[in-house]
Amino acid sequence: MILRLLLGDQLNYEHSWYKEAVQDDVCYFMAEMRQETDYTKHHIQKVVGFFSSMRNFSSWLKEQGKQVVYYQLDHEKNKQDLVGNLEQIMKDNEITKFEYQLPDEYRLDMQLKEFCETLSIQFEVFDTEHFLTSRTDFANFFEGKKQYIMEYFYRDMRKKYDIMMLTKKDPEGGKWNFDHSNRKKWNGKPEIPSQKDFKKDVSKIVELIHDCEVSTIGNIDPKQFNWPTSRKECLSLLTYFCENLLVYFGDYQDAMHVEEKYLFHSRLSFAMNSKMLHPMEVITTVVEYWRDRQDEIDISQVEGFVRQILGWREYMRGMYWSQMPAYKNLNELQNTNKLPDFYWTANTKMNCLRSAIQQSLDDSYAHHIQRLMITGNYALLTMIDPDEVDQWYLGIYIDAIEWVEITNTRGMSQFADGGLVATKPYVSSGSYINKMSNYCKSCEYKVSKKHEDDACPFNALYWNFLDEKQGYFKNNQRMSMMLNLLHKMDKEKLHKLKTRANHIIANPDEY
Ligand SMILES: Cc1cc2nc3c(=O)[nH]c(=O)nc-3n(C[C@H](O)[C@H](O)[C@H](O)COP(=O)(O)OP(=O)(O)OC[C@H]3O[C@@H](n4cnc5c(N)ncnc54)[C@H](O)[C@@H]3O)c2cc1C
Ligand code: SF4
User: Which PANTHER family does this UniProt record tie to the protein (predicted)?
Assistant: First the structure.
């Protein structure tokens, strides 16, 4: 009998394994395990999302006539760790060969490699057939180049997969990148279609998680679970995006709003990261939808979306595999502060942080700019230890899997990799937040004030950060304008800003 392992994020319905004729001597194994619920403290919706999707996948496999062994979290034989479970199954059954798909996380990759070294039977590793690049394509592409630049990687991917190309060399629309059109603030118009709801009853899974005393964060309404957990639901979310949101996706990609948490974002990251949707299927569906409606949907909306998936998503995965395991310990800016308690409660007077964190606790979701320019920006300005920042992002979002979480958090957002992902730190004062959102309008703090008691904390923190880290950034061309402004600043003003910043850093939960 061949034993085939399927991890919780390997729910690729289109994998070639399932296209084979039914074989009596193949058995699939899936398990809900404490090893996975406990490696960080996850949002309750994330645990439910994965368990529910795994169960649907296992039912589908059975419908295809496949043999499946599925351990729920409280299954009597569940040893709660991967190796323990595999050893037991191999002992209880006459397993002659072990097969698994390449894990996307380094820790699982190591665990399975080490496990296979102990085996006396044959084993074989297969591709997940999910990504558009191999683990090493990124390193090969950048070999000998001075710097990693996403734009070049993205252009190469467009050519390689012939996505939105006029000829082999020329992009459609005459430009590779329409990022400059993606900077609009949303002021109540255009109307945002009502969100796509799933509203499923997941009470049984929630009860199981509670009964097993799994420690989680965040909130859930067990009768109205709102994430797609089957292939059909994932496809319906994709269709919904094309028909309702794509038309303004690019324009309002960076916008934030107190009352609108999703704006025109797709919410497709969980569907893709669990592999229920293939990235190329998402890209081609969106591009084909646009192709038939070019008079209604501008190319900039579509290019912006394609770039996130064909570019950033593959780029982050490539970066991960080229840099792990060292990446996990990088802390180039030597930040050591503790993450404020309000990241777990949303109990802060700063309206932007309160909104973004409350939304994350309620929905296990925040869009990219909320993650980067609100919670990430504050963490970097207050010089939080990147280990703490990583743990928070890895736990709170339903789409958080280390390969894409750590590169975005430690790299893009916290500059802890010294600029491998980002060419300059993503930090801003309150004025950027005010420009892109309506948070400041209903905030206790005044975004226009600098160091007074009611001044926006981001303002003092921003100048303090530049002052503290100026030695590190002195040779970074992209920082020179801001550092010049810092050097020209009146000393007394800088002193006042720094005094306020230091008080905020020492007493974050007072603000
Ligand atoms: C600090 C920080 C942490 C993040 N952690 C994660 C994470 O754990 N998992 C995750 O999938 N994304 C992460 N991102 C990237 C991005 O924020 C999410 O992919 C996005 O918000 C998911 O929502 P959406 O599906 O509505 O995305 P949309 O805005 O609709 O974008 C479409 C798709 O593009 C892809 N995408 C967009 N930006 C990125 C990016 N920077 N890196 C990789 N893929 C991208 C996603 O697959 C996303 O579903 C993080 C970003 C930051 C700044
Ligand atoms: S004033 Fe400052 S703290 Fe308040 S919402 Fe605006 S940026 Fe955030």
Answer: SLR1343 PROTEIN (PTHR38657)
Domains defined along the chain, listed by start: 2-126 (3.40.50.620), 137-323 (1.25.40.80), 342-510 (1.10.579.10)
Overall average pLDDT of the 368-392 stretch: 98
Of these ranges, 90-94, 144-148, 268-272, the one predicted with the greatest mean pLDDT is 268-272
The separation between the first and the last C-alpha atoms of the chain, rounded to the nearest angstrom, is 61
- Count of alpha carbons within 13 Å of 389, Cβ hemisphere only? 34
Q: Which ligand is nearest to the CA of 457?
A: 2
DSSP letters, 450-468, are SSSTTB-HHHHHHHHHHHH
- Give SS3 for 26: strand
Residue 116 has pLDDT above 90, yes or no: yes
Residues 439 and 292: their CA atoms lie apart, in Å, by 37
Q: Which residues, in sequence order, are CB contacts of 99 under 8 Å at separation 6+?
A: 2, 3, 4, 5, 123, 124, 125, 126
Q: 3-class DSSP state for residue 189?
A: coil
CB 412 within 8 A of CB 372: yes
For residue 376, the CA-to-ligand 2 centroid distance in Å is 14
Distance CA 251, CA 254 (A): 8
Is residue 182 predicted with pLDDT exceeding 70?
no
Distance 368 CA to ligand 1 centre (A): 6
Average pLDDT over residues 99-117: 98
Give kind and range of the element (H or E) at residue 361.
helix 351-363
CB of 413 closer than 6 angstroms to any ligand 1 atom: yes
Task: Give the tens place of pLDDT for each residue, 244-263.
Answer: 999 999 999 999 999 999 99
pLDDT surpassing 90 at residue 435: yes
Q: How far is the CA of 265 from the centre of ligand 1 (A)?
A: 10
Q: Which ligand is nearest to the CA of 404?
A: 1
The pLDDT, as a whole number, for residue 51 is 98
* Chain centroid offset of residue 420 CA: 18
